């Protein structure tokens, strides 16, 4: 068979073995990681705190499917700004949605002047309102749920103090500040009739949107440019909220910000490549877990290994070729890696073509074999490590069976991510073999409903409902919910 491993030169076989050792996380290690994860989740809820922020979000109920009303939602993601208008209809668990997407200009992600960011967002919202409602000057104020998917401390649901930028963003003058008045000011300046009523993390939105249509949904996860999860805790289990004197069984959604897990490098099996990524990132020492899993970094890990194997004289892949394009940091994104894993041809023709066209590198068949294996190893490690977080929340909450709503480009598009994650969960939680392969796993990670659209609308609706019911906990501007 052309390209079978037996044809590989000895040094490449040895190299593949070495990479397999480096990137494989075995069952025992998965278990150790998830056990440590449980204690770190606990620490994050304590008064002293830990590296996982465990931010209370003031989302204090699951939806029951009977929420109604019309809301705007804004999602400030990495590639797009999405604006939606969502109507939760009288039909149980149903909604209508209209939406527009606007490109997020790359240069805004690292601008020195944060006003440029807020002005751009206000312009997009202005355009949306004018298109769907007509002259802004004549429109009544519309409530908006703002999905801001970065770690933000929330003393109130309508406030969000950015702890630090993640996912490659680095905009001056926003860290440590409340982002809501910044957006409100830009909206006021342009006369856009919108008021930010709730600040939402994508994971919380995902959990709530998914629970709207499936009551078994207990956790929301994002496996995309970043990686994070939210779940519903009880206030009595959150020592850092004890001073509020709320009844112990009051529900409170927690945005874990688990990307920060193991920032102190106690358990994660980091390679020299992971260390290099962290060192050269805008926030070294932060988001240790996320940097091994999230879409932003998968292509970069892969690139760093290939450059290293080229420069290493004993291996010297792509011998004699100019790898200048490959040397450019962040030149390969996770879709490049997906492409390699998806190549359907025995001789890896598509991978050969991609390397030739995009990187100007002509690969030999043994090199292609190594490339494919490396992509598998990196993608598998990401999926298996992700499962440690899901298992940790389930262990902490003693969930023996539930659904987990997941969203994000890696979850939705990366080949085998779901199956690899499911396999890892089975290993961590010691599930027995299924008698029927079609049977559900006790804990199933499923594609979520639209968190930053429907989820944001539901959170606005749930908040409105509790304000009306007289529960003003965590509401800075009750008048905005009237
Ligand atoms: C990063 C952000 C977090 C977000 C996640 C997924 O980890 O810090 O807030 O939920 O990416 O988008």
TrEMBL record:
Superkingdom field: Eukaryota
Name assigned to this protein: Phosphotransferase
Organism of origin: Emericellopsis cladophorae
A Gene Ontology term for the protein's cellular component: cytosol
Pfam families named in the record: Hexokinase_1, Hexokinase_2
Alphabetical keyword list: ATP-binding, Glycolysis, Kinase, Nucleotide-binding, Transferase
PROSITE patterns recorded: HEXOKINASE_1 (PS00378), HEXOKINASE_2 (PS51748)
Family designation: Belongs to the hexokinase family.
GO biological process, one term: intracellular glucose homeostasis
Boundaries of every Hexokinase N-terminal domain copy: 16-212
InterPro entries referenced in this protein's UniProt entry, alphabetically: ATPase_NBD, Hexokinase, Hexokinase_BS, Hexokinase_C, Hexokinase_N
Catalysis: reaction(s): D-fructose + ATP = D-fructose 6-phosphate + ADP + H(+); a D-hexose + ATP = a D-hexose 6-phosphate + ADP + H(+)
EC number: 2.7.1.-
GO molecular function: ATP binding; D-glucose binding; fructokinase activity; glucokinase activity; mannokinase activity
Pathway it works in: Carbohydrate metabolism; hexose metabolism; Carbohydrate degradation; glycolysis; D-glyceraldehyde 3-phosphate and glycerone phosphate from D-glucose: step 1/4
Residues covered by the Hexokinase C-terminal domain: 218-462
């Amino acid at each position: 068979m052309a390209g079978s491993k037996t044809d590989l030169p000895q040094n490449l076989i040895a190299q593949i073995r070495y990479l397999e050792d480096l990137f494989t996380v075995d069952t025992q290690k998965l278990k150790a990681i998830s056990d440590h994860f449980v204690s770190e989740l606990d620490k994050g809820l304590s008064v002293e705190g830990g590296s996982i922020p465990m931010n209370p979000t003031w989302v204090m109920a699951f939806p029951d499917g009977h929420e109604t009303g019309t809301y705007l939602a804004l999602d400030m993601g990495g590639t797009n700004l999405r604006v939606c208008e969502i109507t939760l209809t009288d039909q149980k668990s149903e909604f209508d949605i209209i939406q527009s997407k606007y490109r997020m200009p790359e240069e805004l992600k690292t601008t020195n002047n944060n006003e440029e960011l807020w002005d751009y967002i206000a312009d997009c919202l202005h355009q949306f309102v004018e298109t769907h409602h007509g002259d802004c000057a004549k429109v009544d104020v519309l409530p908006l749920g703002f999905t801001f998917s970065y770690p933000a401390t929330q003393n109130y649901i309508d406030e969000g103090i950015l702890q630090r930028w993640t996912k490659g963003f680095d905009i001056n003058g926003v860290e440590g500040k409340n982002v809501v008045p910044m957006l409100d000011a830009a909206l006021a300046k342009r006369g856009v009739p919108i008021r930010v009523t709730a600040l939402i993390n994508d994971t919380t939105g995902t959990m709530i949107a998914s629970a709207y249509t499936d009551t078994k949904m207990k956790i929301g996860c994002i496996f995309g440019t970043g990686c994070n999860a939210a779940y519903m805790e009880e206030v009595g289990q959150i020592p850092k909220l004890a001073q509020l004197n709320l009844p112990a069984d009051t529900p409170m959604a927690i945005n874990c910000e688990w990307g920060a897990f193991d920032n102190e490098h106690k358990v994660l099996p980091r390679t020299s490549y992971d260390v290099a990524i962290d060192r050269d990132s805008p926030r070294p020492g932060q988001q240790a877990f996320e940097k091994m899993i999230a879409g932003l970094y998968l292509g970069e890990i892969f690139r760093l290994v290939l450059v290293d194997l080229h420069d290493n004289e004993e291996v010297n892949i792509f011998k004699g070729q100019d790898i200048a394009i490959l040397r450019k940091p962040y030149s390969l994104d996770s879709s490049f890696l997906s492409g390699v894993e998806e190549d359907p041809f025995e001789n890896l023709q598509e991978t050969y073509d991609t390397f030739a066209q995009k990187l100007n590198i002509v690969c030999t068949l043994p090199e292609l074999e190594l490339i494919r294996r490396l992509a598998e190893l990196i993608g598998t490690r990401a999926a298996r490590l992700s499962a440690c977080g899901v298992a940790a929340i389930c262990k902490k909450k003693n969930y023996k069976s539930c659904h987990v709503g997941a969203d994000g480009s890696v979850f939705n598009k990366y080949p085998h991510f779901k199956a690899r994650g499911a396999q890892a969960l089975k290993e961590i939680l010691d599930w027995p073999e299924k008698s029927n392969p079609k049977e559900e796993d006790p804990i199933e990670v499923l594609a979520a409903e639209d968190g930053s659209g429907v989820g944001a609308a539901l959170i606005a609706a749930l908040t409105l409902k509790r304000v009306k019911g007289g529960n003003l906990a965590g509401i800075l501007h009750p008048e905005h919910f009237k």
